[in-house]
peptide-methionine (R)-S-oxide reductase (Hymenobacter jeongseonensis), 153 residues
Amino acid sequence: MLRWKDILIFAKYGNPEPARRVKHTDAEWARLLPPERYRVLRQQATEPPYRNAYCRVYEPGEYACAGCDSVLFAAQEKYHAISGWPSFRQPRARNAIRYVFDESFNMQRVEARCNVCGGHLGHVFPDGPAPGGLRYCINSASLRKVDVEGIGN
């Protein structure tokens, strides 16, 4: 189980290595992704709160990166945080997420990126529920829901 101190150590000293890497040029990403997903995953945009695909979805399954299909979160880790975006307690694997310090907009935050393709997912905060105390606040546009049988939604 990851805790806030683990996130800070990863962001400062380096993240766990993923099993694989997916790399494309910016032009290739623009061709591969729909405009909204490109904006969020590759340009670090944020979708509007509450008006996104997975904010109020709680069915079983998993959530994969919309850029490279790497599984990021299990549905049972999702909870209602009243933030306007899908919120998760823990990632599916210790090396699923890359953590980067983000000081944009005069704030100090930790950005969550897909550790395989580097796509922007959202941010992680230390105000989540016990036992880990983490809240991964993730853009729906960066995710693809996969049901239990592996058929994408």
Observations:
- Helices lie at 4-13, 26-32, 35-43.
- The chain is about 15% helix and 25% strand.
- The chain has a mean pLDDT of 94.
